[in-house]
Amino acid sequence: MSRKTSVRHFEENLTELETIVAQLESNQLSLEDALKAFEKGVKLSQDCQSVLTQAEQKVQILLETNDGERLENFDPESEQ
C-alpha cells in the first residue's frame, strides 16, 4: 500500500469511526446493531492505531538518520 493510499485509508477509517461514535451516542440503534457498530469501531480504531504507529516509527528513523544532527523539540512559547 502506497503512502498516499495509506493516508487516504486512515482518513476514511477515521471518518467512519466518527460516524459510528455518533450513532452509538445517539442511542437510536438496537442492541444488536449497536454491538455490530461497536465491533466495527474497535476494528477501525485498531487499523488507525497501526497506521499511527508506523508513522511514528518512520519519524523516529528520520530523526535518528539526520546526519547525526539532533532536532530539538518545538516550543511554540519560545517563538513569540
Automatic annotation (TrEMBL):
Q: Determine if Nuclease is one of this entry's keywords.
A: yes
The catalytic activity, as recorded, is: Exonucleolytic cleavage in either 5'- to 3'- or 3'- to 5'-direction to yield nucleoside 5'-phosphates
- Location within or outside the cell: Cytoplasm
Under which EC number(s) is this enzyme classified?
3.1.11.6
Does the keyword section mention Coiled coil?
A: yes
UniProt entry keywords in alphabetical sequence: Coiled coil, Cytoplasm, Exonuclease, Hydrolase, Nuclease
Q: Which GO terms describe its biological process?
A: DNA catabolic process
Primary localization:
cytoplasm
Which GO CC annotations does the UniProt entry carry?
A: cytosol; exodeoxyribonuclease VII complex
* Coiled coil regions in record: 7-34
| An annotated Gene Ontology molecular function | exodeoxyribonuclease VII activity
Family per record: Belongs to the XseB family.
- Outline what the protein does: Bidirectionally degrades single-stranded DNA into large acid-insoluble oligonucleotides, which are then degraded further into small acid-soluble oligonucleotides.
Concerning NCBIfam families, the annotation shows: PRK00977.1-4 (NF002140), xseB (TIGR01280)
Subunit: Heterooligomer composed of large and small subunits.
Q: Which PANTHER family match?
A: EXODEOXYRIBONUCLEASE 7 SMALL SUBUNIT (PTHR34137:SF1)
The molecule here is called Exodeoxyribonuclease 7 small subunit
Q: Which organism is it from?
A: Marinomonas fungiae
